[in-house]
Amino acid sequence: MKHLLKKEKNYSYIEIGEGKPIIVLHGLMGGLSNFDAVTDFFSAKGYRVLIPELPIYTMSLLKTNVKSFAKYLHDFIEFKGLDDVILLGNSLGGHIGLYHTKLFPEKIKALIITGSSGLYESAMGGGYTKRSDYEVIKKKAQDVFYDPEVATKEIVDEVYETVNDRNKLIKTLAIAKSAIRHNMAKDLPKMQTPTCIIWGENDNVTPPEVATEFDELLPDSELFWIDKCGHAAMMERPEEFNTILNGWLIKRSF
To answer: Is the CATH number of domain 6-124+183-251 3.40.50.720?
Structure first.
């Protein structure tokens, strides 16, 4: 991670640029550096990009759920004194962004989701019965991407360490159960926040039909596809991702 991590009060976060605030929400095993290309691009375009470290493995087990993380995000927004926030979330981060927007719509100007959970959670938290087998974990990490080479040794090592840490594995499974409990199919039609959906056409974690369903259920959404791209479009195809998102923000005058 090339950006400096700030630590204030209960928060660790990256903050780059000045202007309209974009808060980026990482996924379950997604590091803050996954968004370096997004951070660099939009901070140069007149946005203030903030990436908080979500307390995925530090919350008590009872609070290891989507709702608690959404409230944590609300507290962070209050702490930073932000209004008219643009939320961008990948995977679990998308789900947290959606749930936060359901609870606190007055603070959120726009929402961007990519590979988001919230409708389809069968791939979250499962498949770790052979977690001590490095090659099995490597294959699981590679399957997140269309191009397996994107799963560098650093990424694979981090996933391997996480699933072999008993405390982190318990929290991972708790989050997976919470994601199922907090399915948003009934909430989405009531959410009026403008939403940009950017999805990899080759996403094996949250398949393309999930993106289509999000688009159908959300009243004010627009869906964009990236070909030859898996679950983390902002990492695998950063230039296309940034071009699509920038175009949408300009069109909507955000």
So the answer is: no
